[in-house]
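Homework help board

Subject: predicted structure for assignment chain

Our instructor gave us this sequence and asked us to write out the predicted structure in token form, then describe one feature. I got the tokens but I'm not sure how to describe them. Can anyone check?
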Amino acid sequence: MGSSGSGIAETSEVPIASSESAPRFLPALGWETSQTAILATAANVPLGPDVLEGNFPAYDTIQQLEVGDVLMQAMFIAPRDSWGDEVFPPRSLPLSLDDAHRHINFEGQPGHIDADRLAATVKGWAVDVLVFYGGGDPTSVPAVRAQPSAETRAAAQEQLARLLVPAR
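My token output:
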């Protein structure tokens, strides 16, 4: 379970695969982070091998999320002229979950896991952020999806504010 358990979790920083100038989440107490050239991940649970392999989304880790657990993944790509501002609207840091599409359904997403999706153009990057929240009942048919608590969303927002996006 993530930081919602004892409240005392060690920060574990996974070695990064690219330079410090790449987009990334800053680590924080109770959160693990991982980075590749185009993908930044933060979670208040241990990151699984799927994250370390650079999978987006990291469904093996997502499947393990419990109440209060959050996995956040941000992909960074060069914007395309054909997308326009409606696909990746210009935004400034810190990004806000208030701008996210709530309760999305993403292909392969476990039915009991709630998710938000936030798209933005920031400092020359098209940024696609997926936020997965644990909870719900994976054994029910159909699966029951629990909404994240206000406390869980606040913790996710605090980590989202730690997203660093240098100019591209």
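Reply (TA_rk): Your tokens look well-formed. For the description, you could write something like this. The beta strands are 12-13, 24-25, 32-35, 39-43, 70-77, 114-122, 125-133, 163-164. That's the kind of observation they're looking for.
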